[in-house]
Amino acid sequence: MKRLLLTIYLLIGMSSSQYAQKVIPLYNGKIPNSKEIAGLKDTTIVYTAGEKKITVITRVANPDLTIFLPEKNKATGIAVIICPGGGYSGVAIDHEGYAIAKKLNENGIAGFVLKYRLPDAKYVNNKEIVPLQDVQRAIELVRENAKQWGINPNKVGIQGSSAGGHLAATAGTHYLKSYIDNPLKTNLRPDFMILTYPVISMADSLTHIGSRNNLLGESVSPEKIKEYSNELHITPNTPPTFITHAVDDDAVKVQNSLVFIAALQKNKVPVESFFYAKGGHGFGMDNPTSDVQWIDSCIDWILKTNKK
Predict the structure, then answer these.
(1) Structurally, how many domains does the chain consist of?
(2) Cross-strand bridge partners of residue 78
(3) What is the C-alpha separation between 159 and 110, in angstroms, rounded?
(4) What is the pLDDT of residues 208-258, one digit of tens each?
(5) What is the Cα–Cα distance from 66 to 69, expressed in whole angstroms?
(6) pLDDT per residue over 107-121, tens digit each?
(7) Which of 67, 118, 140, 233 is the most buried (most CB within 10 A)?
(8) Which residues pair with 47 in a beta bridge?
(9) Residue 177 and residue 45: Cα distance in Å, rounded?
């Protein structure tokens, strides 16, 4: 099937995407596993958490990528696809999406914020694979358009926060199976992963139960729990990983990151961690309890990992 050149639309006047450069639809034509519902539109809520205003898209009708390209004189050729969190019931598009992309841009790294579909059976079929389809499509799109965006197709990483961290880790551990139409056989393996207070495991003792229920349902089989427990799918070919988490996180247990790190180390996969004593869950790029922010160490790590 012949690839059509994607039309790029400028985002104008949208306060929640004030730093966005452009947005492209994730798919041309029919969106796989989406139910055809006339007039379906995104639904967004805004709430306050402390001093932060949190914007969450709670229904995604049309998945897309918001593209942040660095100034050409700063560009490193490195790209990061960003998967905001939201418990698989929403996409926290601003503080876990656009803000991170802007920071990456300042350091010469392209950012692609993924507005992925949520596993809601009212709007999609085969709900458990829909977010993974969208992230694989994002990787496919970025690699296939790398030249026009000034990106090295061998320096495309993925970042995710909370449930978005589970999605990113799933992309980094389940890449051998294509869940999308991939006629050019484009490589779907991220070159590196960045996981921010991630949901990793679906096991009863570790998982964030809301994320698991939203993705897999309340009556989940032991086989499905194993399939989506990403610590069980690490191999020596798993991408190098940067992980950050707060020890006092009472929503997603820090043990999620610890078991992932242990499995990476067992398989001799390079991993760097950045732990906070405090900070709780969902702090995004800036942990208010600390003067030192994970994103600065992470950017150094990205540049070092992609130096060759």
Answers:
(1) 1
(2) none
(3) 12
(4) 999 999 999 999 999 999 999 999 999 999 999 999 999 999 999 999 999
(5) 10
(6) 999 999 999 999 999
(7) 118
(8) 54
(9) 34
